[in-house]
């Protein structure tokens, strides 16, 4: 096989290997994936079913998304940011949020350009930067008071970047950026001339009543921010595979072309279901889902009290420090499965020095009752 430099540093995500090793044993706690058992909005199910029955949506036109969904996305962004986005020129629908990342990178970077991410970060962001030909520039997260914090001093050392590719809350750590963090990010964008590519997939999954800060509300960021969103996390509509990109009109003209040639467009039936979820006046069950995720997160923290697990500010997962118990992340992952019947992914492809010492515990698909013996399972894995 001919060599291909794009793949020289790209790492496997690790998730599939853990899932395959876990098999279908119902006793295994499935903490390795990002599926959820919290049901999707009934309005979305009804709208999708109706579209299938009536035959509406069986099309790949328009290539950048159905107007009804583009309008719903623009309305949702206005509620979150106060900004107006033209649905026809500033919103593009994609096949899930992760499918939005590559066209955005291709439109904003040249080969070799630095792209700033946190360490750890979602492997789907980190490895796509490498695949695009750009170069990851990682800024570490640190643990302060039992929570993840952005290392703003390290961010202040960044002198060159084409883009900052960030999430808040972020996978896999659950870190939430404070106003001071976003202000430091704005300063970095201004200093380097970079775009902010903001993955907002989990923006409303926030714990402990913390404030939700959208970067478009921060001075200096609105005109630089390209927002990637989806219905997968907040709306529990993973299988619909609906995402979007929205941003300034000039860069969106380029992104539209890249998105069309990347995946054409998401399925029309699913787009109609997503539009119904976004427009649901009852809120599509987001607040109730967040309360359930917080209960699961708090159960994990209580079960593992005294062990090196880091509290998440939001999202679907938290991280356990394998190195703090004298193991590598792959070693701990193997022990957890063999002795504790827990499937958990090592974060070796999710960053560098910080990510590589952790395993991820995803609580989105395991209810509180199933998590109630987590400590016993961990103790079994850590013995000897």
Would you mind describing this structure in some detail?
The protein is an alpha/beta fold. The protein folds into 2 domains: 5-40 and 285-382, Aspartate Aminotransferase, domain 1, CATH 3.90.1150.10; 43-279, Aspartate Aminotransferase, domain 2, CATH 3.40.640. Helix content is 37%, strand content 16%. It contains 13 helices and 14 strands. The protein has helices spanning 15-22, 42-54, 67-81, 101-108, 123-132, 152-156, 179-192, 249-263, 268-279, 286-303, 329-340, 368-371, 374-382, and strands spanning 29-30, 91-94, 114-119, 135-144, 147-150, 163-167, 195-199, 225-230, 243-246, 309-310, 317-321, 342-343, 345-346, 358-362. The strands form 3 sheets. The chain has an 8-stranded mixed sheet with strand order 2-9-8-7-6-3-4-5, with helices on both faces. β10 and β11 form a beta hairpin. The longest helix is centred in the last third of the chain and has 18 residues, at 286-303. The protein is globular and about 60 Å long. The protein starts with 14 loop residues before the first helix and ends with a helix. The mean pLDDT is 95.
Number of strands: 14
Q: Which strand order spans the largest sheet, edge to edge or round the barrel?
A: 2-9-8-7-6-3-4-5
Return the CATH topology of the largest domain. Answer: Aspartate Aminotransferase, domain 2
CATH superfamily placement of the largest domain: Type I PLP-dependent aspartate aminotransferase-like (Major domain)
Shape: globular
Q: Kindly report the average pLDDT value.
A: 95
The SSE order reads HEHHEHEHEEHEHEEEHHHEEHEEEHH
Ends distance: 44 Å
Radius of gyration, CA atoms, in whole angstroms: 20 Å
């Amino acid at each position: 096989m001919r060599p291909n430099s794009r793949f020289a540093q790209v790492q496997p995500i690790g998730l599939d290997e853990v899932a395959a090793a876990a098999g279908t044993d119902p006793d295994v706690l499935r903490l390795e994936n990002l599926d959820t058992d919290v049901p999707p909005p009934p309005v979305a199910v009804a709208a999708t079913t109706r579209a299938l029955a009536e035959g509406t949506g069986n099309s790949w036109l328009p290539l950048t998304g159905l107007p009804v969904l583009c309008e719903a996305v623009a309305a949702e962004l206005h509620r979150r940011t106060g900004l107006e986005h033209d649905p026809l020129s500033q919103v593009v629908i994609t096949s899930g949020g992760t499918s939005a990342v590559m066209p955005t990178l291709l439109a904003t970077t040249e080969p070799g350009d630095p792209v700033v991410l946190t360490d750890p970060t979602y492997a789907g962001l980190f490895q796509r930067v490498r695949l695009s030909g750009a170069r990851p520039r990682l800024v570490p997260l640190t643990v302060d008071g039992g929570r993840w914090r952005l290392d703003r001093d390290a961010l202040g050392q960044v002198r060159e970047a084409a883009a900052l590719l960030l999430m808040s809350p972020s996978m896999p750590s659950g870190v939430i950026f404070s106003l001071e963090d976003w202000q430091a990010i704005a300063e970095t964008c201004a200093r380097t001339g970079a775009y902010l590519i903001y993955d907002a997939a989990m923006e409303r999954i926030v714990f402990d009543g913390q404030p939700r800060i959208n970067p478009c509300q921060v001075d200096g960021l609105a005109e630089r921010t390209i927002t990637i969103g989806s219905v997968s996390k907040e709306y529990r509509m993973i299988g619909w595979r609906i995402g979007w990109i929205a941003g300034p009109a000039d860069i969106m003209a380029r992104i539209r072309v890249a998105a069309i040639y990347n995946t054409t467009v998401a399925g029309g039936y699913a787009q109609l279901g997503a539009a119904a979820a976004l427009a649901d006046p009852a809120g599509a069950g987001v607040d109730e889902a967040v309360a359930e995720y917080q209960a699961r997160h708090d159960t994990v923290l209580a079960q593992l009290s005294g062990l090196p697990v880091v509290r998440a500010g939001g999202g679907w997962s938290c991280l356990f420090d394998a190195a703090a118990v004298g193991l590598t992340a792959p070693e701990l992952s193997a022990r957890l499965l063999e002795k504790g019947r827990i499937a958990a992914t090592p974060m070796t492809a999710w960053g560098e020095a910080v990510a590589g010492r952790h395993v991820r515990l995803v609580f989105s698909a395991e209810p509180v009752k199933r998590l109630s013996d987590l400590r016993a399972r961990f103790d079994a894995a850590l013995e000897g």
